[in-house]
Amino acid sequence: MKKLISISISIFILSVSQLKADEGMWIPLFLKKYNIEAMQKKGFKLTAEDIYSVNKASMKDAVMIFGGGCTAELISDRGLILTNHHCGYYSIQSHSSLENDYLRNGFWAMSDKEELVNEGLKVTFLVRMEDVTSKVLNGISENTDDYKREKIIENNIRLIEEDAQKGNSYKIKVKSFFYGNQYFLFVQKVYKDIRLVGAPPSSIGKFGGDTDNWMWPRHTGDFSLFRIYVDKNNEPAEYSEDNVPYKPKKHFPVSIKGVKKNDFTMVFGYPGRTQEYLTSYAVDMIKNKINPKKIEVRQNIIDIMSADMEKDPGVRIKYSAKYAGVSNAWKKWIGENRGLEILDAVAKKEATEKQLTDWINEDKDRIAKYGNLLTDYKNIYKDYTPYKLAQEYFYEAIWRMESVKFSSKMASFIKKEDVKKDDIESIKKYAKEFFKNYNLTTDKKLFKTLFRLYYENAGDKFQPEVMNIFTTFNHFKIDKEIVVEKYAKLYFDNTFFLNEEKFNDFIEKYSYGSEDTQKVKDTPGYNFFYDFVNVYYSKIIPFTEKYKTKIDKKNRLYIRALMESKPNKVFYPDANSTLRIAYGKVDTYEPRDGVEYQYFTTLDGVIEKDNPEIYDYDVPDRLKELYYKKDYGKYGEDGKMHICFIASNHTTGGNSGSPVINGNGELIGVNFDRNWEGTMSDIMYNPDQCRNISLDIRYVLFIIDKFAGDKRLVDEMTVVE
Ligand code: ARG
Ligand code: ASP
Q1: Residue 420 region, left (φ>0) first, then alpha (ψ -120 to 50), else beta?
Q2: This model's pTM is above 0.70
C-alpha cells in the first residue's frame, strides 16, 4: 500500500510548465524538483538553494510569520523587519490614544530606545521542513477502516513530533497536504520581543481605506516597521531591557532600480487558505447559498458601525480595527462571487467532474475505488448546507454582538470554583481592553439588527428558546421591530456587567458561590449567551462536524483520483499557512472590455484623490509639499514617485507583508492585497484577471527617508542602486 501512495505522490513530480500561467503556491522544499527551471526561464537568476536551504543561509531565513496571520521579512542586519500597515495595525492602535494618536499621525522611533514593546506579538521562522508522508501513513492499507486510519495517523504524527522535539526548544508541527495525501513536518523558531519601529499615518498607510481596499488602481502606502530583539546570545527571549537587536543569517537587499512590465516577480510568504480542488457542489453552496447571506449580515454591521464612526472620532478609534476586519471579508466575498459568476465556475467544475467520471468508468478497479464519489458529494452537500448556514449565522450574527463575547467571558469566569487572584486579574485585563474599544450605543444597534437577522434566516431548527418571544408577540400581532426593541431594552438595562463601572465594582469584591455568581446568572446577557451556545453545541456543531469528516474523506479520494487521471499535470497543494512561493511577472490586465489597467500607480493619483473632508483621502501636508517640490531624492523615476504595482503572483490572505522579490533575489516590494476582479483566486484562478498588489519598495524608502526623516533606518538597509 505504501507503494500505491508514493506512486500517486510522484505523479506531480513532472514539470509545472503544463500549468496555467503563474497559477500555484509552491512548496519551497520541492522547488528544485518542479519549479526552478520554469522560474529561471521567466527571469530568476539564482538557484533553488538560494531560496530554501538547510545547510546555508537562504531567503527562508529572512521570511517569517508575523503575529497570527501575516508575513514579514528582514531588511537589515539589525533585525529590522518590514510588514504591512494593516498587519501592524493592532500594535499601532494599542499604543494610541486620542492625545497620542499614532494611527492618525504615524509613529517614528528616532533611536532604538524609542522603539515600542508589544506584549504578545511574535514572529515565527521556518528552520526546516521534511516530507514525512510515508512515516505518517505507516501501517495503513487500502482496507484500513476510517476510525483506525485516523487513530494510526494521530499516533504516527505524535511520534514524529516527539522525535523532532528531542533536545531542542523549537516549535514542531506536522501538517496535512492534499487532504491527507501528503504530510510535512515543520520545525519553527519563535521570537517574542518584537518592537514597533515606524508606521506612517493612516492617511498614507491606509490611504483610501475600505473604499479602495481590494481595488486596483491603488495608492496605499501599506507598510510598518518592527524590530526583533534577542538575548545576548542572539537567541529568542521574552522582553527584557537588556535585549539587543537580532543579528540574522540573512536579510533582503533592497533594490531601488524600479519595476518594469514583464519583470520576473516572486512572492515568498505564508498564504492562509485556498480551496482550489472543491467540487461543483461545494462551489455552488459557497457561491449561491453561503456568501450572499454572509454578505448581507456584514452589510448591516458595516452600515451601523460606519454611521457611528462618522459621527464621533472617539468611536472611530474604538471601532476602526473591528470595522476594517468586518469590511475586508465582506468586500472580498462580493468580489469572489462576481469572479466565480464571470468564470462560470460551477459549470467549469462540472466539466472537470464529467471528465473524471468518464475516466473512472473506463476501468473496473477505478469504479470500485471511486465509483460513488460524485453522487456521494451531491447528497452530502444537500444535507450539509442548512447546518453550514446556521453555523455561519452563529458566527456572523450572534458572535458579532460584542455583548455576547463579553458574556461568554463572564460565563467561563463564574464557572471557576476556586477563584485565584490571577483569574481576577486576567478578567480585569480582558475587560479593560474590551471597554477601551466598546461603545454601548453601537453594540445595542448591532444587537437589534443581528438578533432579527438570525431569527429570520438561520432556520427554524436552530432557534433558541429566547426566540419564543417572537411567537408569543406574533400572537398579539405585535410588530417584529417592536419586539426586538423591547427585548433589547430589557437585555441592556439588566446586564449590569456591560457597564464598565458596574463591572469594576463587581469584580473587586467578587467571591464564588455567594450571591455574586447568581447575580451574573440572572442577567439576560448570560442567559442569551447560554441559550445560543446550547443550540450551537447540540444542534449545529455535531452535524457540521459529521459532514465535514465525510467531506474530508471524500476529498482525499477525489484529489487522488484527479491526480491519477491526469498523470502529466503538476498539482500544487492548497494554502494552509505554510511557507510557499508564488512566481509570475509584472503585468497589466483588462478589467472590462476596452479598458486596460496600467501596472503601476504614482503619487499623482494620491493628489487626484486628495479630499480633506474624507478621513481616508486626507493627504498630509508634508506629503503634498514633497509632491509639489518633486522632492523624491533617489527614489523617483522620470520625475514621478511610484507607489504600487501589480503582478500575476498567486497569493491569498496571509500573504500580506510578504516580500516581493526580483530576478536577482532583491526586495522590490511588499505584497498587501489583490485586485477585486481576481479575488475568486482562492477557489479558481484566472490568469487574465488575477493580480497581486504590492507596495513599491521605493515608496517605502521615500516615506521613511523624506517624509518622516528617519534616515537611520535607510542607513541600516542594504540598498542596491
Ligand atoms: N484586503 C487586504 C487583505 O485582505 C487588506 C485589508 C486591510 N485594509 C483595509 N482597508 N481593511 O488583508
Ligand atoms: N490582504 C491580504 C492579507 O492580509 C492579502 C490577500 O488576500 O491578497 O493577507
Answers
A1: beta
A2: yes
